[in-house]
Amino acid sequence: MDRIKIVGGHKLEGVIPISGAKNAALPLMIASLLTGDRLTLKNVPNLADVNLLARILRNHGVDHSIEGKRASPTPHLGETFHLTARDIVDTTAPYEMVSRMRASFWVLGPILARMGQARVSLPGGCAIGTRPVDLHLTGLKALGAEIDIDGGYVVAKAAHGRLRGGRVVFPKVSVGATHNVLLAAALAKGETVIENAAREPEIGDVANCLVKMGAHIEGIGTSTLRIQGRDSLEGAVHTVLPDRIETGTFAFAVAATGGNVLLEGARAGLLETALAALEQTGAVVTQEADGIRVRRNGSGVDPITIETQPFPGFPTDLQAQLMALMATARGTSVIRETIFENRFMHVQELARLGADIQLHGDTATIRGVKHLKGAPVMATDLRASVSLVIAGLVADGETTVNRVYHLDRGFERLEEKLSRCGARIERISAG
Ligand code: EPZ
Description:
Layout: E1 3-7, E2 12-17, H1 22-31, E3 38-44, H2 48-60, E4 63-66, E5 79-84, E6 92-93, H3 95-98, H4 108-115, E7 117-121, H5 134-141, E8 145-150, E9 153-158, E10 167-169, H6 175-185, E11 191-195, H7 201-212, E12 216-218, E13 224-228, E14 236-239, H8 244-257, E15 259-264, H9 272-280, E16 284-288, E17 291-296, E18 305-307, H10 319-326, E19 332-336, H11 346-352, E20 356-360, E21 363-367, E22 376-378, H12 382-394, E23 398-402, H13 405-410, H14 414-419, E24 424-428
C-alpha cells in the first residue's frame, strides 16, 4: 500500500489549481442514466471514486469515453467525459459495487424513473457513521415507488410502470436523498416539489445540468425545488463546478503552515462560511480575478468555536481539516460535529502528532499546542486523511500517512499540488 511521507515546517507559496468537484461529478455522471443521448461533462477530476463510478455505470449500460489522452498537458483543466446510456442493460446495482462507494446508491432514482424498476444494494454503514437511506426511500415512495427490502437490496417498482410527481418534505437535510429524488423527478410524470432540500452547491450544479437536458426546475439553490418531469431528456454539455472542499482544504493548509497561495479557479461564493472561519483564525483571504488568495504571515493562529451544518453552514467535509489547523492555535477551540455521529477518527491520529484534543459526544475541545511532532499515522477516511496531511505539513520532522488510498478517492494529485508550493511531501509506492 502506498504511503505519503511529509517533512513538516515549510511554508506554502505559489499557485494551486482547484479541480472539479468530486461530489458534483459523481451525481452528474449518474444523471447520464436519464437519457439515451450523450451527456458530456467537462472538468471531471481524475479520482478513484470517479473511475469506480464509471465502472459501475458501465455495468448498467453506460458507454463511457474520455476525450483525448488521460495524461492531458493541462491536467488542472480536468477531463472531458462522454457518457451515453442508450439502453439500460441491467437495473441491478450489486453489493460489491455499492458497498465500495455510497454515492452509487444514487443510481436508484434515475434507473427507477427510466425503467420503472430498479434493484440496488443497501450501502451499509461506513467509517463516519451509520448513514441510513430512509430519506431516499420515503422520497421515492412519494413519487409512487413501491419498495421492498429483500436480501440486502432495495427492490423498487414504479406503480403503473412510471413514477409520477409528488410532494416530498424531508424531515432532515440530506444531500444524497435530495440528489436521488431530484434525478428521479426529472423523468417522473408531472410536478414534484421537494421541501427542505439540501442546498449544497453540488445539488445546484446537478439541477442546472438537468435543465440543460430539458427538465424544468424552479428554486435552484433554495430549499424548495419544483421540478416538472419530462417524458424524455436530451443530451447536454456541462462543466463541473470547482471543488469547494478541496479549496477549503488547501486554504486551511496555507493558514496552518503560513505562506501565500493563490487557489486558482476557486470560487469564494461556494464556501463563504469556511472562509469567514479562516479569517477569524487570522488568515487573510482575498477574492482575485482568477481565484482566491490565502495568506498568513508570522502571526499565530487564533482559536475558534464552530459547529458543522448543512450548506450554507460550515461543512462537515472540512471539520477534520479545521481541527488540524486548530491543533497549533493560541488558545482553546471548540468544534461540534452535527452531521455525522462518528466523524472524529482523525482525533486519535492527530494526538499521535502531539495535538491536545478532548472528545465529549459530538464536541471536540482542542487546546492549541506550540508544536506538533511528526509520527506515522493512519488514514481512516477521505477528509480525516487530508487533515493528517495538513498536520504533517506543520509538524516538526517526518510524518508518514498510511492507507493513502483514502486520499486518492477525493484529492487529485495532492502531493504534486503541495510540493509545487514548497511542501516537502512525496508518495512512497508499495512497489
Ligand atoms: C454527502 O453524503 C457527501 N457525499 C458527503 O461527503 C458529505 O459529508 C455529506 O453529503 C454531508 O454534506 C457525496 O456528495 C458523495 P447526507 P450523503 O445524506 O449524501 C442522515 C466526502 O467526504 N441521513 O447529506 O451520504 C445521515 O446519516 C463525503 O466527500 C439520514 O438520516 O450525506 C447524516 O447524518 C463524505 N437518512 C445526514 O443525514 C438518509 O436517508 C446527512 O447525510 C440519508 C441521510
